[in-house]
Amino acid sequence: MDGRLSKRPETRSKLARLFFIMVILPAFLYSLAELAGGADQQTESGQQAKSAPPAEFIQPIEFSHKTHIEKGGVPCEFCHVYARRSINSGAPAMASCFGCHSVVAGSDEDQKEAIRKQEAIKKLLEYKANGESVPWKKIHDLPDFVHFSHKRHIQVGFDCTECHGEIDQHDVLSIQTMITDLSMGWCMKCHTEGRQTVNGKIAGPVQKTRGGKIMKQAAAQQPDGILLGSKDCYTCHK
């Protein structure tokens, strides 16, 4: 009996060592590897960057912003209808596409038929026939912990190109067409240094009262400028 009791501490010690080797140590080493890999992806602002997107974003339909915006004169908000009144700009709905494409161009039936046989138009018609929306892929994306409002920026005079670049000059969007990595440091540069308005004046600093409303006094100091964005953490991280 005494011999069996004397062996119990030794058995427990072996089990503890085995648990450490099989569970604790692998978990610790894995955490170190994750930290080492993530360190290379830190931006200047300290924000964890997402892995780089592919060189070209392959959409389900070959869509040219240059053809639609520059050549066709279609404004951004015709397709991204929610940008001015919502947090998200919204992906183009099928109704937006067929607002134009329901009328097929061409002076005769042969030309119209040739247009219908174009690969992009064929795919668009297939989605419509199946009652499906086009599964567009999101290009300018932000991490889930970042809150960004399109309407707040557009309603104070921002142009789409200030964040998205000159999309109207490109047929295929790629990393090279993105003017920024949308990092926290890039956003804060505008929120802290300001931006020029149409008349070339730079906005003054924001002053806030309880509840986050801009003081009339601050607005009166810069009647021709757009006030700087909030630097409160909660503004972007809800």
Can you tell me about this structure?
By secondary structure, the chain is mainly alpha-helical. The chain has a domain at 142-235. The protein contains eleven helices and no strands. The longest helix is centred in the N-terminal third of the chain and has 38 residues, at 2-39. The chain is extended and about 95 Å long. Mean pLDDT is 70; it is low at 36-53 and 196-220.
Short description:
The protein has 238 residues and is mainly α.
Q: What structural keywords apply?
A:
single chain; 238 residues; mainly alpha; 11 helices; 0% strand
Give the fraction of residues assigned to helices: 40-55%
The residue-averaged pLDDT reads 70
Q: Look at the helices and sheets and give the structural class.
A: mainly alpha
Silhouette = extended
Which spans of ≥5 residues are poorly predicted at pLDDT below 50? 36-53, 196-220
Alpha carbon gap, first and last residue: 63 Å
Q: What is the number of helices?
A: 11
Radius of gyration: 28 Å
Strand content: under 5%
- Quantity of strands, as a count: 0
The topology string of helices and strands comes to: HHHHHHHHHHH
